[in-house]
């Protein structure tokens, strides 16, 4: 990302250049909701800040929505779906901020004055309103897995994704924007995001999984991502060997996506894969689906697919309803925004909603790490536990940098 010295002027214009730290800290200081993100393999971080007080939306209508950032939970209703409208937009490439027409002169002035205040390390991100800390223990997780295997073998469902949390103390030198920058550096192929909303909380993550995206060339994309194994240093992905269990697990996600296309009577899609991809310390199997909306007349495909897809069998299970019921009854904690979806809507780069995975929620002095694993009839509770350990490494490595 472009790092231009704060407070300098950008060549060619007389606009002031700000740093990511200045912009994010100004939002915190003014109690404003903020979302920062970087698309996979891109260098630019974009930040959206809103002056809106009511951020709750029922569901995003992707086609008619203004530019903003959506942050939606696993179960809509248990937590609100949030929309951070792009009242203020910052680009790390130019260092400039831009105000939308909805912003009043007084709001602009207040924000600019706050931006120019000297940086202090003594700022705090937005915290979740509730004091209760989500937790799932090793024993709780493993007994839920054992019960899931029995339910699958009795024919009541094919797959269920079970997850758990880990509470880690924040190292005393932890710095949120520095952590975001580390995530950018460490995971160039991930969708990196930092969302901080009053009452809702603060989440940092590096997602490997597109849920729905529509780029400026009007290409709709989604993926079937599943199957996990550690990526070995220096080992080419072409050498990866997958067991029947992972192949079937990923095949279920693929079938689920195809069933969604079928429900919409859409036949003109392209399917590539499954291929092995690397996400941080892990490898997965991924099939890419795309639809060229310039050729297929389906203006609401994004919104319709979002409605049908979420939660996919990559984070919930198959069939969806019994898997979701099993999760709510046996997982033992509230997933909140983990395995929900998030991303920019109608930005100049398009709409890019990702599944909120490989993420952590930041409390005042601790972080909650979240990870899950797909359970099938062939699962083993100990191996699934190990898989969640591996997935948590994505964020654990970031925290370790501050120790
Ligand atoms: C559930 C997670 O990941 C999902 C589950 C996977 C699996 O079961 O193999 C792989 C990738 C993701 O679709 C997670 O990261 O927490």
TrEMBL record:
Keywords: Isomerase
All residue ranges annotated as the Chorismate-utilising enzyme C-terminal domain in the record: 139-391
Catalytically driven reaction(s): chorismate = isochorismate
EC numbers: 5.4.4.2
InterPro entries on file: ADC_synthase (IPR005801), Chorismate_C (IPR015890), IsoChor_synthase (IPR004561)
An example Gene Ontology molecular-function term: isochorismate synthase activity
Taxonomic superkingdom: Bacteria
PANTHER family reported in the protein's UniProt record: ISOCHORISMATE SYNTHASE ENTC
Family: Belongs to the isochorismate synthase family.
Protein name per the record: isochorismate synthase
Provenance organism: Pontibacter populi
């Amino acid at each position: 990302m472009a790092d231009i010295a704060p407070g300098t002027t950008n060549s060619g214009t007389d606009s002031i250049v700000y740093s990511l730290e200045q912009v994010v800290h100004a939002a915190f200081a003014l109690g404003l909701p903020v979302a920062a993100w970087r698309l996979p393999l891109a260098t630019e971080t974009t930040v959206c800040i809103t002056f809106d007080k009511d951020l709750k939306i029922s569901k995003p209508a992707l086609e008619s929505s203004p530019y903003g950032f959506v942050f939606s939970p696993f179960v809509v209703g248990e937590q609100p779906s949030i929309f951070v409208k792009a009242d203020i937009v910052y680009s790390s490439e130019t260092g400039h901020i831009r105000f939308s027409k909805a912003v009043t002169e007084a709001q602009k002035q207040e924000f600019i004055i706050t931006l120019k205040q000297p940086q202090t390390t003594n700022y705090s991100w937005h915290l979740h309103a509730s004091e209760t800390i989500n937790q799932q223990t090793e024993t709780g997780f493993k007994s839920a897995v054992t019960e899931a295997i029995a339910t699958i073998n009795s024919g009541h469902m094919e797959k269920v994704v079970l997850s758990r949390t880990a509470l880690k103390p924040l190292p005393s030198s932890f710095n949120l924007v520095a952590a975001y920058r580390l995530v950018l550096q460490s995971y160039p192929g991930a969708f990196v995001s930092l969302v901080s909303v009053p009452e809702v909380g603060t989440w940092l993550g590096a997602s490997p999984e597109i849920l729905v995206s529509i780029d400026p060339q009007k290409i709709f994309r989604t993926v079937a991502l599943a199957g996990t194994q550690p990526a070995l240093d220096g080992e080419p992905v072409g050498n990866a060997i997958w067991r029947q269990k992972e192949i079937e697990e990923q095949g279920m996600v693929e079938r689920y996506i195809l069933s969604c296309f079928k429900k919409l009577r859409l036949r003109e899609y392209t399917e590539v894969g499954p291929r092995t991809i690397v996400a941080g310390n892990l490898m997965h199997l991924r099939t890419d689906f795309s639809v060229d909306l310039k050729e297929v007349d389906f203006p609401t495909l994004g919104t319709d697919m979002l409605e049908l897809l979420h939660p996919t069998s990559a984070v919930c299970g198959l069939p969806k309803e019994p898997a979701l019921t099993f999760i709510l009854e046996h997982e033992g904690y509230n997933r909140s925004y983990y395995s929900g979806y998030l991303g920019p809507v109608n930005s100049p780069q398009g709409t890019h909603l990702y599944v909120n995975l490989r993420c952590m929620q930041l409390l005042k002095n601790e972080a909650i790490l979240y990870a899950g694993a797909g359970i099938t009839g062939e699962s083993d509770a100990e191996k699934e536990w190990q898989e969640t350990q591996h997935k948590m490494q994505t964020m654990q490595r970031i925290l370790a940098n501050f120790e």
